[in-house]
Specification:
The structure holds three protein chains of three kinds. Chain B has six helices and eleven strands. Chain B is an alpha+beta fold. In chain B, helix 2 packs antiparallel against helix 3. Chain C has a single domain, classed as Cytochrome c oxidase, subunit III, four-helix bundle (Four Helix Bundle (Hemerythrin (Met), subunit A), Up-down Bundle), CATH 1.20.120. Chain C is mainly α. In chain C, helix 1 packs antiparallel against helix 5, helix 3 runs antiparallel to helix 6 and helix 5 packs antiparallel against helix 6. Classes of the chains: A mainly alpha, B alpha+beta, C mainly alpha. Chains in contact: A-B, A-C, B-C.
């Protein structure tokens, strides 16, 4: 065994990362042992099949990844803050921007959104859990292990370094001989399978498990957005699965898909990647639209304006999202006709998106708008995202794109889309639904401080990039010369990045502060909510609803509060719940090892791990676990206790 | 829409305040292609300013008017379903805007993909620009000279760059003269440009290509016709020939300074086949050219105003195969599926 | 667990009917998966570099056998589900057994084909065309092989438990999977082999 290839040589930075990972691991192990929490961790979290806990784990993982990706971003901005900086060398800069992109899209934005949908969707549709709770746990552990696999690459063997889009031939073994891009293909593959399973799970959950009376056109907008998102997942992710498999075959087994010799075709990768990649953007942005719709309705105390057109615009966006992928490479020489086609489909997306913006504005109109922290993020989203949207239309024009492509203008554009469109949304959703899960609100004053830091710094960071792009600065340059004149604006951008970092630190401090000092909610409905998730207690009992609610409007809970009509008509009966199981976790761990062994071409251990997976699947197939029942009396007692009555 | 004026002024002042207009290379064109693009960009910025203005005005208005305040405490907004007429308005107007911009796009794309109007009647100067590692090679087949990391072109002359790569996908970009285009290993792409001002312009690879990417720049020097001819004669007289060995050395090197030779590599290392529309309308199928490491023989090295779409392939069986396969009709099959 | 007697056994509980629907959604994801592989194959089909083309490589004999086996097995798995609905455990097991044996024979022929190709110097590494051919066929073959293992596991459960809501559900879902593989094979047969031989 050649140990050399596991090592990453280099800089104090890498050694620092190694040491901090080692220290954190030791710290966690020691802490868990000291406080005797191993059993608790295993029983309550690692083996859980409860959608709420799985959702919380997704969100925790996403927050950790947000900080990993954020540190990457800070390093990039620092390295480019001034001409000829010597903070990172080219190779490390390349690794850093590659992992920044991968982590932020696949291991931050997506899991954060999947976490929120896990927590909220069953509640919003009045269900006790998702359709397949165990599959849900498998999804989570596959995602988590994929994320871990990518993260260890930084210290074991080297990170992927060909950009998050990993264009061939650059990502081929010839031009990228380290194991970095093996990590890319396997880590993404493993977590991608998890995401695909999530897609199947939520489609079934939403289509088959809604509370009685909730027709499709009475579903809350977030549920609609999640349904459409998961349909996109089911149709887009298999393309990524294939693309990554071909990449793996090229890199590990010498096949000739994207090579320069023997009939390989590098352009094929770009096509496959973006056939998945563009819908992926909508996978993170459509749920965000759903979150904003909920928040705007709640805090302007009005129902959503133009519900039907909101739904249809999302459907149209999802269809168009599959027809625009070539706008990522207008410059590949495919000619006027093809470029024009993709220009028009791309610009067409602006129409349904515009419909949504105006519907939101008209929801606010004649409302009574209160500026809470989640609402602030939502309100900041509208003007910032509109800039992202209109620059998107500008980029969609094939001819003009010949000048924007690969420049900082593009970088500015997609951050103007993705940060308000996804990051603000998950933060807003986090603040909005936090009290539902934990039973207390995050402090509004500290939250607003964080908000203003983040919102202003965001613009300071990314607005200058529009100009840098027009000046001719391309993306992914680790350094530039003094004469280029890129210096001052990059320095401004770095200052903004520091401000963003401060904002996020305040946000985390708020979680700590509120956990200790914030007053606890008592009625489960701190915001005067409209949809079903606010109709149950906070924290939420394991069974979600003691009695499945009956729905006859789009805002059932609001309706029942206004008209004083009962949501629950049936009597409490015994409730069936699934048992916890450790198998999804174990399956995830084996997948992790399979991935790791394949990364390093260690065939025998990889085969052993592969057989282990088949054995685990067989064990799960033979298992007959019928779950357990909570008796009606026990449910009634829990309900009383949660209402604050003495038993 | 009457707010557009002040906003445009604001934008302009921002532009001037920040880096100064002349440093925005993209908006400071020195040739017809770049000028078309610059005009397109400015037009789209103006239209988008209008859109932004509408959204922003509406946004500020609703936030100010309908914010929660003491005077409207206890006010419960009424249920409001939506409004067919209003919704139709914000569907139809964006469609009109998009249609307008689509027309602009198609026209301008067509314009920059072809030789500029005023140079239509010229025989374009053909230059092959190929990238390897982090260098650019410029071959002038008509003149029989080759340069590395700089390209000289005559002013007021249609120039046709034919782009390809000896490795990773790169993107050939001289922002002040034209938009960019990819250079790839298995397909020849084409970029038309011309300059109408003498001067030195920054050119670079804009598509990330690995470690040396940041430094992959070249100088595009636009000179008068006389100067250009003089330079060509000078190169032919005084510079060494580019031998195959020398060229291998060039390819292997990571970075090189400027080099100049009095012959081109095209004779012994022909470029890949010409491109045609490689994606059909639905984009799912690509042109199938028989990819081969040794770029297909292109008998079309000598200058001609129009690139030939001919690709030929000598189907020699690989002598290293243990059981040589019968020679197969590869040269026919290359044209299938076009 | 609530059992709805008005429905077939495999649909009888909410969980069962969700599982069947969920599997349909999963097959919905398999369609773009194979569609992508086919697209890759069509892009690569003429890029055979120094290697052989499809016309030189393919032989109709084994492919016809494979087709015959898989089509027949699709029929027998249908018979198995029919027998299961009638409550005939033994017939169900027999038909499933026949199905799986034919699946196994299919995989056997395919592996033999692969060995022949490799022996002729046509490997995964030879050309873009062969890479895409091996991966397309291999993915389908891997599905059949996995289906074989899965089917055996279900047969053991059927044999031990008899026809219960759980085993009926699994058998039915398995039959969906098997039919799907058959459909994919028809596409491979037509667009890879027949077109390649022409």
């Amino acid at each position: 065994m050649d140990l050399e290839k596991f090592k990453v040589h280099g800089e104090p930075l890498i050694y620092g990362a190694m040491i901090s990972i080692a220290l954190a691991t030791i710290g966690i192990i020691v802490g868990l042992t000291y406080f005797k929490k191993w059993g608790y961790l295993w029983r309550e979290w690692l083996t859980t099949v409860d959608h709420k806990r799985i959702g919380v784990m997704y969100i925790i993982a996403a927050l950790l990844m947000l900080f990993r990706g954020g540190v990457d971003a800070l390093m990039m901005r620092l390295q480019t803050a001034a001409p000829e900086m010597k903070f990172l060398d080219a190779q490390h800069y390349n690794e850093v921007f590659t992992t920044h992109g991968l982590i932020m899209i696949l291991f931050m934005a997506m899991p954060f959104i999947i976490g929120l949908m896990n927590v909220i969707i069953p509640l919003q549709i009045g269900a006790r859990d998702v359709a397949f709770p165990r599959l849900n746990a498998i999804s989570f552990w596959l995602f988590f292990m994929g994320a871990m696999l990518l993260n260890i690459s930084f210290v074991v063997g080297g990170s992927p370094d060909a950009g998050w889009s990993a264009y061939f031939p650059l990502a081929s073994i010839e031009f990228s001989p380290t194991v970095g891009n093996n990590y890319y293909s396997l880590a993404l593959q493993i977590s991608g399978i998890g995401t695909l399973m999530t897609g199947v799970n939520f489609i079934v959950t939403i289509l088959k498990m809604r509370a009685p009376g909730m027709t499709l056109m009475k579903m809350p907008m977030f549920t609609w957005s999640v349904l459409i998102t998961n349909i996109i997942i089911v149709f887009a992710f298999p393309v990524l699965t294939v693309a990554l498999a071909l990449m793996m075959f090229d890199r590990l087994f010498g096949s000739q898909f994207f090579t320069m010799a023997n009939g390989g075709m590098d352009m094929l990768w770009a096509n496959l990647f973006w056939v998945w990649g563009h819908p992926e953007v909508y996978i993170v942005i459509l749920p965000a639209f759903g979150i904003y719709s909920e928040i705007i309705a709640t805090f302007s105390k009005k129902n959503l304006y133009g519900y039907t057109s909101m739904v249809f615009s999302m459907v149209i966006i999802s269809l168009l999202s599959f027809l625009v992928w070539a706008h990522h490479f207008y410059t590949m020489g495919q000619g006027v006709m093809v470029n024009s086609f993709f220009s028009i489909t791309t610009m067409a997306i602006a129409v349904p998106t515009g419909v949504k913006i105006f519907n939101w504005l008209f929801t606010l109109r004649k409302g009574r708008i209160s500026f809470t922290t989640p609402m602030l993020y939502t309100l900041a989203f509208i003007p910032i995202f509109t800039i992202g949207g209109v620059t998107g239309v500008m980029l969609a024009m094939a001819s003009a794109d010949y000048q924007y492509h690969n420049t900082m203008f593009l970088v500015a554009h997609f951050h103007y889309v993705l940060i308000p469109g996804a990051v603000f949304a998950v933060i807003a959703g986090f603040h909005y639904w936090f009290p539902k899960v934990f039973g207390f609100r995050l402090n509004d004053r500290i939250g607003k401080h964080a908000f203003w830091w983040i919102a202003i710094s965001f613009n300071v960071t990314f607005f200058p990039m529009f100009f840098l792009g027009l000046m001719g600065m391309t993306r992914r340059m680790y350094t530039y010369s003094e004469e280029s004149g890129f210096g001052p604006l990059n320095m401004l951008s770095f200052a903004g990045a520091l401000g963003l970092a401060i904002g996020f630190v305040i946000l985390v401090y708020n979680i700590y502060w509120s956990t200790r000092y914030a007053p606890r909610d008592t009625n489960g409905d701190p915001w005067d909510g409209r949809t079903l998730e606010w109709a149950t207690h906070s924290p939420i009992p394991a069974y979600n609803f003691a009695v499945i609610p009956k729905v006859n409007s789009r805002d059932p809970y609001w309706e029942s509060k206004q008209k004083n009509t009962p949501l629950y008509e049936d009597k409490i009966t015994k409730i069936h719940l699934p048992n916890n199981t450790g198998k999804p976790f174990i399956l995830g761990v084996i997948f992790f090892f399979l991935g790791f062994f394949l990364v390093f071409s260690m065939w025998i251990p990889a085969i052993v791990a592969g057989v282990g997976i088949i054995i685990m699947l067989a064990v799960m197939s033979f298992e007959r676990d019928h779950g357990f029942y909570i008796s009606a009396e026990e449910v009634a007692a829990t309900e009383k206790k949660l209402r604050g009555e003495t038993v | 829409m009457n707010k557009k004026g002040p906003l445009y002024a604001l934008f302009l002042s921002l532009v001037l305040l920040l880096p100064g207009c002349s440093s925005l290379a993209v908006l400071n064109p020195k040739g017809p292609a770049a000028r078309t693009l610059s005009d397109t960009i400015i037009l789209s910025i103006l239209v988008m300013m209008g859109v932004l203005a509408v959204v922003y005005i509406l946004y500020v208005f609703v936030l100010v008017k309908y914010r929660a305040k003491k005077s409207n405490e206890g006010y419960i907004p009424e249920h409001e379903e939506g409004n067919k007429v209003l919704e139709a308005i914000w569907i139809i107007i964006p469609i009109i805007i998009v249609a307008f911009l689509s027309v602009v796009t198609v026209k301008s794309t067509h314009a920059v993909e072809n030789v500029a109007e005023q140079y239509k009647d010229q025989d374009p100067l053909v230059i092959y620009a190929s990238s390897s590692n982090w260098k650019w090679h410029f071959s002038y087949p008509e003149e029989g000279i080759e340069t590395v990391n700089y390209v000289n072109i005559p002013v007021h002359r249609a120039v046709e760059f034919r782009l390809y790569s000896f490795g990773t996908i790169t993107s050939f970009w001289i922002p002040q003269l034209a938009g960019q285009k990819y250079a790839m290993s298995d397909m020849l792409t084409e970029l038309n440009l011309s300059a109408d001002t003498v001067g030195s312009y920054m050119g670079r690879n804009s598509n990330f290509s690995g470690k040396g990417f940041a430094h992959m720049e070249f100088e595009a020097l636009v000179m008068t016709g006389d100067e250009y001819n003089e330079w060509v004669q000078d190169v032919k007289a005084n510079e060494p020939e580019l031998t195959e060995d020398e060229f291998k050395g060039l390819l292997a090197a990571e970075h090189l300074g400027r080099k100049t030779y009095s012959s081109t590599h095209l004779t012994f290392s022909p470029p890949p086949g010409d491109h045609s529309e490689h994606m059909s309308g639905d984009g799912s199928e690509m042109n199938m050219e028989n990819g081969n490491e040794d770029h297909q023989d292109n008998k079309d090295i000598h200058p001609s105003p129009e690139p030939s779409s001919q690709t030929e392939f000598d189907g020699e069986p690989n002598p290293e195969l243990e059981e040589p396969l019968p020679s197969f009709p590869a040269d026919e099959s290359t044209h299938e599926g076009h | 667990m609530k059992i709805d007697a008005s429905k077939p056994l495999e649909y009888s509980t909410e969980e069962n009917s969700n599982k069947i629907f969920g599997f349909w959604v999963f097959l919905g994801a398999e369609i773009p998966l194979f569609a992508t592989l086919f697209t890759v194959y069509f892009v690569m089909v003429n890029r055979f570099a120094d290697g052989p083309s499809g016309a030189e490589l393919f032989e109709i004999g084994p492919v016809l056998w494979e087709t015959l086996l898989l089509l027949t097995s699709s029929f027998t798995i249908g018979l198995a589900v029919h027998a299961m609905r009638l409550g005939n455990k033994k017939a169900t097991l027999v038909f499933m057994g026949i199905t799986l044996l034919m699946g196994l024979a299919f995989v056997g022929i395919e592996i033999d084909e692969f060995f022949t190709y490799v022996h002729e110097g046509a490997t995964l590494q030879t050309s873009g065309f062969l890479s895409s051919l091996f991966v397309l066929l291999g993915t389908h073959g891997a599905h059949v092989s996995f289906g074989f293992l899965w089917g055996v596991a279900i047969m053991i459960q059927l044999w031990r438990e008899g026809i219960s809501p759980a085993t009926a559900n699994k058998t039915f879902i398995f039959s969906l999977f098997w039919h799907f593989l058959d459909v994919v094979w028809i596409f491979i047969f037509s667009f890879v082999y027949l077109k390649g031989l022409m």
